Amino acid sequence: MNQAYAVAAVTAVVLATVLIGALGLRISRTTSDFYVASRSVKPGLNAAAISGEYLSAASFLGVAGLVLLQGPEMLWYPVGYTAGYLVLLVLVAAPLRRSGAYTLSDFAEARLESPQVRRLASLFVVGIGWLYLLPQLQGAGLTLEILTGAPDWVGGLVVALVVTGAVAAGGMRSITFVQAFQYWLKLTALLVPALFLTVAWLGDDAPRARFAEPATFREHTVVTVDDTVRVDLDRPLRVTVTGTVDDRRHEREPVALDAGVHRIGAGTSLAFPAHARVPEKAGTDRTGASSWSQPLASSREEHPLYATYGLILATFLGTMGLPHVAVRFYTSPNGTAARRTTLVVLGLIGAFYLLPPVYGALGRIYAPELSLTGEADAAVLVLPDRMIGGLGGDLLGALLAGGAFAAFLSTASGLTMSVAGVLTQDVLPSRGVRHFRLATVLAMAVPLGLSIVTVNVPVADAVGLAFAVSASSFCPLLVLGIWWRGLTPPGAVAGLVVGGGAALTAVMATRAGLPGGGWSHSLLAWPAVWSVPLGFLTMVLVSLATPHRVPATTAATLARLHLPEDLMAKDGTGVGGGAGR
Amino acid sequence: MRSLMRSQLRAAMVSLGALALLVGSLPLLFSLPEVFTASDLPSPAPFVWAALGVAVYPVMWLIARWYVRRAERNERAFGKLVEGR
Amino acid sequence: MTGIEIAAVAAAGAVLLAAGIVLGRVTARHGRGDLDLGTPVEHATFHTLHTASLAAPPLRAGLTEDTARKAARRLRSLLGTEALCLTDRESVLAWDGPGGDHHREPVMRRVREMLDSGRSQSVRTDCDDLQCPLRWAVIAPLTGEEGVLGALVAYGSRESAVLVRAATEVARWVSVQLELAELDRSRTRVVEAEIRALRAQISPHFIFNSLAAIASFVRTDPERARELLLEFADFTRYSFRRHGDFTHLADELRSIEQYLALAGARFGDRLKVTLQVAPEVLPVALPFLCLQPLVENAVKHGLEDSTDEFKVTISARDAGAEATVVIEDNGVGMDPERLRRILAGEHTASSGIGLSNVDDRLRQVYGDDYGLVIETGVGAGMKITLRFPKYRAGVHPSSPAGQGRRPGPRTGP
User: Fold this and answer.
1) I need a surface site. Which of A82, A507, C93, C281 has the fewest CB within 10 A?
2) CB burial of residue A286 (10 Å; 0-12, 13-18, 19+)
3) What is the domain extent for residue B19?
4) pLDDT, tens digit, for every residue of A36-75?
């Protein structure tokens, strides 16, 4: 694909983000405009901002990639991302807004009045934020590698620098406008090419995507494998090889490969004839230098129902605990607006999620070799070139590249701001603008370092891991804190440590590739099924065991969380005392 | 005040129940081959695509809209109750 | 009239009647009555009431030497005793009648005993002076809101149950007067405090000037005059809220907007205002009337001290977990030394009260890190920067100021 267009598109997106962030304040120069300037943010605008920030690389690229690899079962990811907002609306939205909290650690302090819980919550916020940032940077690296052939750490570095610079320099002065712009940009970037691609597909006699059987190459395709990969052929295959296969070097010579496992060296090009089957990767290669392992995929195959429910629980219950989700509620003026905003968010992200499956299915047909090279996340980016080609393909590809970068930037900036805010308030000693800048650098540096060092995992899966930790730690805290009078600080601490800690350990083990296979692997790869109930149970039991530690102001706090604001204003403290009717 | 919390919690539970029933049961549904051998669909794939790719989103949005309406109605009723005193 | 006052008057009436009847009996022994002009009892009652009405006014001002002196004379004639004195808890305030010289000391000792028990006592005076007619004393407590304020001591030549009774009743009546006096005083205090608070919140100058400006539009542009009046009404309603509440930044900005509309009506084109708002910070809770007085200060000095065009810029930005508000103007500025003194609380002129008041309140609610940051110089305008944390325990837009508290000690490296 034409690099120039793509790079231009990416640059344009970056510039637009920075500019709108810097200038997108409401400016009024005459007193008659003040009315407009000081009105609260409408639910529609805030909802677009929330959606823009929420739709990350996982949504833009990852879902399509996973669908390409494993079929429509992967659609549970976007369904889960959306359903998570429904659960948030129903259980958390209005009370969280009414608590006045900006971050989740603020909520912990507001509800439980305990600095220990606050500090522990802050640690989890930072941890989950980093877990979520990591795949964004990796996705950016992949995108830039596809576009420009740069090494995969460059993309992550670019995003990190842009975001850190913008946030630390105080440029993100108007998050709402920036993120709202990002949403519409992403939607357009995904929608327009999808329309063209669908037309092209129809024009091609609408071939069907098959997931039950291995994909086939539509035409003669040359695939270059960047890293060593082992493939498992179930029938003999004839390919033209330039490179190393089974430790034998070939120079553009046709090779007949028997059924069975073969090892293809790094940098090898294979030319497949039309209608040849795409070889499947042979299990997970842990001994070789393969940098793209798919641990979750294997366990998904072994225990699909368990894995699906693990994913469902993680995404349904984890959205409420993500750092960049909670802070966006602060912008709503009151609880009712928060609820309505969330309703609009559901509509906006639902509309968006109609599109990635299209790309996934088309990718299966037209770019099946991505499963071989392990770059399935790039499906969205390569399709225009594959299917349409020429200038149109270049332009559409550039649009998609810009959209993808918008996805990285928006989510990364939202996460960085939240994590930096928490670091400034709760971890670094004193406050002030200077320390916020330092915190921003710190917030980005750790995931950046990790992204260079750790193994790449498909983006959507990596994000799912962050969801699992969030669901096991903050979901019990929020749900029990908002709806149960009996929650105590020791209970909250125990629940966070046990539930969140268990999920975190499982996630870490999975990413380190520790357990081999079977149930132990599945349990650790999808911890939500057991870690969420564990978190809830621990919180409830320990709270019941420490009834004397129930905060004295619980009744008043709960009144504030649940009563509509106008009633609170009229009754004042009388309502708190009148509670318990 | 407890009455308001109770009614809001009830609305929430109904919504979650609907979600669990309509969406959360789908994996079980998909894994039942009998459903599909009974009908003349060759594979469950189109149903999965239709359900997960398109159908769940309007369903979830409708559940959400029902909940928002219900919650606001609960709050209004409670407000009248409190002020009528 | 409040319930207390009605009860007080009723009690006073009852006491007077009792005292009158006692007096009537006492005086009736010595005279025959004329039915048309009143029996001796009736005369005595009239006399009692008249005397009582003359004794009342001084005591309404409280129990002091001055008032006690005036009242003691009347009270003595009311009771018809040989001598009467009024004391507070420490010393004799007034003495009416003979024997004051040698009885002042011992009486305080007796009064102190009575103070402990709080009940009337009747004692023998044990006076060594054989000429002194004061042989018996009745010490009755005078009570106020907070307990026993002093004593009324009535002296007689012999022990008399009537005297005890009468003295006790009169003491009770005097106590009622003193309680009424305290009520008066505290009501005055409250009203004064409210007036002071109001005057701090709205300057009378501003009201006068705004109304004058509105009036000037009534004939020429009645629609505008009406709009300005409505703005004025909203503005004063907001400003009359209790001083210690919290409010949203959006509300505070609206109040500034109304103020500027009113000030703009007066100054017209000379006032140029720019507002830059990041909408995310509009819900931030901050102490009530933190920003509007600063803007008012800036406008007042900028426009009234010079005739050039005056520009004010108010900007609200999102800074992570805080909101930053900057109020900048291009007016005459202030000498930094003077500013330092104002913020330290040594202000003298009426200007600058707003600055130190806002600074104090911010520090009180959020801690010393969150005071005002002001950059200024003579002729160089002024730039005030305020920071508000988006969340602080105890700060809610409906809570009174007492609940906002400073952060606890933070552990850290």
Assistant:
1) C93
2) exposed
3) 2-84
4) 555 677 888 889 999 998 998 888 888 888 888 888 888 8
Nearest-angstrom CA–CA distance, C139 and C75:
14
How far is residue A77's CA from residue A79's CA, in Å, rounded to a whole number? 5
**pLDDT at A160 > cutoff 60:** yes
Decide if pLDDT at B33 tops 50.
yes
Which chains neighbour C (Cβ–Cβ under 8 Å, 3 or more pairs)? A
Whether residue A87 and residue B19 make contact (CB cut-off 8 A), yes or no, is yes
Amino acid identity, residue C198? Answer: L
For the stretch A94-141, pLDDT in tens is: 999 999 899 999 999 999 999 899 999 999 999 999 989 988 888 888
CATH superfamily, with its number, for domain A3-21+42-204+288-566: Sodium/glucose cotransporter (1.20.1730.10)
**Chain C, nearest residue to A324 by Cα:** C320
Centre a 10 Å sphere on the Cβ of residue C25 and count the other Cβ atoms it contains. 13
> Which chains share 3+ C-beta pairs under 8 angstroms with B?
A
Q: Which residues contact C366 (CB under 8 A, 6 or more apart)?
A: C388, C389, C392, C404, C406
- Which of the 8 DSSP states describes residue A432? S
- Chains C and B touch, contact meaning at least 3 pairs of CB atoms under 8 angstroms apart: no
The length of chain A is 581
Ordered domains of chain C (ranges, CATH): 3-197 (3.30.450.40), 202-401 (3.30.565.10)
Residue A296 is predicted with a pLDDT of 63
Task: Please list, in sequence order, all residues whose beta carbon lies within 8 angstroms of the beta carbon of residue A561, skipping any fewer than 6 positions away.
Answer: A95, A98, A99, A111, A482
Query: How many domains is chain B partitioned into structurally?
Result: 1
Angstrom distance (rounded) from CA A296 to CA C152: 95
Domain ranges of chain A: 3-21+42-204+288-566, 221-277
Residue C10's alpha-carbon distances to C4, C15, C18, C55, C59, in angstroms, are: 10, 9, 12, 17, 17
Question: How far, in Å, CA of A130 to CA of C90, rounded?
Answer: 74
Confirm or reject contact between A577 and chain B (CB < 8 A).
no
Check C393 against A110: CB less than 8 A apart.
Answer: yes
Nearest neighbour of A173 by CB, restricted to C260, C318, C412: C318
Check CB contact of B14 with chain A, cutoff 8 Å: no
Which tens digits make up the pLDDT trace of C17-29?
877 777 766 655 5
| CB contact (8 A) between residue A38 and residue C276 | no
CB contact under 8 A, A304 and B15: no
Question: For strand A260-264 and strand A229-233, is the pairing parallel, antiparallel, or unpaired?
Answer: antiparallel
For residues C281 and C245, is the Cβ–Cβ distance under 8 A?
A: no
Q: Residue A399 corresponds to which tokens in the numbers above?
A: 């649009």
Strands, E assignment, A37-173: none
Q: Indicate which of A63, A70, A90, A91 best probes the interface with B, i.e. most B CBs within 10 Å of its own CB.
A: A90
Q: What are phi and psi of C379, to 5 degrees?
A: 75, 5
The predicted model scores a pTM of 0.73
Beta-carbon count within 10 A of A165 CB? 14
**Interface membership of A91 toward B (CB under 8 Å):** yes
**CA A496 – CA A474 distance, rounded (Å):** 7
Separation of alpha carbons A121 and C199, rounded Å: 46
